[in-house]
Write a structure and sequence with these properties.
Helix content is about 35%, strand content about 25%. By secondary structure, it is of the alpha+beta class. It has two domains: about 5-175, Thermophilic metalloprotease-like (3-Layer(aba) Sandwich), CATH 3.40.1830; about 185-410, no CATH class. The protein is globular and about 60 Å long. Belongs to the peptidase M29 family.
């Protein structure tokens, strides 16, 4: 095999063996764009070699969604196939593994009516909400990984030819997932161990409030005593360890729903459902967004914040050092999977109950009592830079540096 094929094979192995940690006898569902069919076949073959019971591929076509958004009636936009929602939920209950190959066109819906795009997203979010609880709760092993498309590559490298842009993007994916190294598996184990060490330190300090200061950002976020910091290594209901994002650089927790106050400014574009939202800021009072601005994508952001009652509240707080492999590429990927792992970020919408002690077994009322946010959306956006400082306030009122100039202070 040539060098590219060797790296591509390593990438597939990393996805199945480290990311998903696919188990023998497990059913695998692959959600992917139709342009990724060649790589999907490679993944499928390797999955069966690992003992997969069955591999089911659910192809997606953004162009078909755009046609629907432009031509369907309002009633058609509200129509989601219930058989699909029930099927995914049924397979989740039977311990499926889910691979989501992310290959978006960041600008495909840029000229579409934002309210119609929002209606389609809301309809799908409501229909798939029960299944999404298996994802946000880490109850099944799942993974988001990326594969280039021509459209995505050209938004990042517009000066290159299409073929060169795709090749360049493959290089970056291989680099940021450590697949360009001879044996990436032990490198990933070492990386995960280092992130767990950071999370353990934060848990020992038991911070009650985080204070963010940076250009356009002056924000406080309150944390509950029952929440905990994690890195992106999860354990599902069958005690299987998996890494749900490739690449990943974050250590994260959840805030108290009503405990966010101040203003925060984005530092990278947000690709939300085929639309770019750029140079935006949010102002919070008692947890809720009460004001917002955006140089591009204002209507998209407005619709996002009104998706449901929980949409204008936060559901995640994540720390990512500015000095990290993805950030050091100097590339804005226009893809949250990469950009959120190059920058500290926070997420609007649904909180992750894995960040709560015994959260998987708590009732909705018990989660509500500790300030847990519930929503059909979970949208990360980037707020980190080399100028961001974060302090942690402990229960006795003392403050300690967590980040200085965008990097860990301990």
């Amino acid at each position: 095999m040539n060098t590219f094929q060797v790296k591509l094979s390593r990438y597939a192995d990393l996805i199945l063996q480290v990311g998903l940690n696919l188990q023998k006898g497990q059913r695998l569902i692959i959600h992917a764009p139709i342009s990724a069919s060649s790589f999907v076949r490679d993944i499928t073959s390797k999955a069966y070699d690992l003992g997969a019971k069955n591999v089911i591929v659910d192809y997606d076509d953004e162009q078909l969604r755009k046609i629907k958004i432009e031509k369907a009636t309002d009633e058609g936009l509200k129509d989601f196939p219930q058989w699909k929602a029930k099927g995914y939920l049924e397979m989740a209950k039977e311990n499926m593994a889910l691979l989501n190959l992310s290959a978006p066109n960041p600008e495909i819906f840029q000229d579409s009516d934002p309210s119609r795009v929002a209606l389609v997203n809301k309809t799908a979010g409501e229909a798939m909400k029960d299944f999404r609880q298996y994802i946000s709760g880490g109850r099944i092993n799942w993974l988001i990984a990326a594969i280039p498309t021509k459209e995505w590559a050209k938004t990042i490298f517009p000066e290159l030819s299409t073929d060169d842009a795709v090749s360049k993007l493959w290089e970056q994916i291989f680099y940021t997932t450590r697949v360009d190294q001879e044996d990436p598996v032990p490198l990933w184990k070492e990386h995960i161990s280092a992130m767990n060490t950071r999370a353990d330190y934060l848990n020992r300090r038991k911070y009650k409030t985080l204070h963010y200061k940076g250009p356009g950002t002056d924000l406080t976020i309150d944390l509950h005593t029952q929440t905990k910091w994690l890195c992106a290594e999860f354990i599902n209901d069958q005690e299987v360890h998996f890494v749900p994002n490739l690449p990943t650089e974050e250590v994260f927790t959840i805030p108290i729903k009503t405990g966010v106050n101040g203003t925060v400014s984005s530092t990278k574009p947000l690709n939300y459902g085929g639309n770019l939202i750029q140079n935006f800021s949010l102002t919070f009072k008692d947890g809720k967004v009460v004001d917002f601005q955006a140089e591009q994508g204002y209507e998209v952001l407005k619709n996002l914040l009104s998706a449901d009652e929980g949409a204008p509240y936060l559901g995640e707080v994540a720390l990512v050092p500015h000095d990290s492999p993805i950030s050091n590429t100097g590339i804005v990927f226009n893809n949250t999977l990469f950009d959120e792992n190059a920058s500290c970020h926070i997420a609007l919408g649904n909180a992750l109950n894995i960040c709560v002690e015994k959260g998987k077994n708590m009732t909705k009322e018990e989660l509500d009592n500790i300030g847990f946010n519930d929503s059909i959306i979970h949208v990360d956006f980037m707020i980190g830079s080399g100028e961001l400082d974060i302090e942690g306030e402990r229960t006795d009122g003392t403050k300690e540096p967590i980040f200085r100039n965008g990097n860990w202070a301990f």
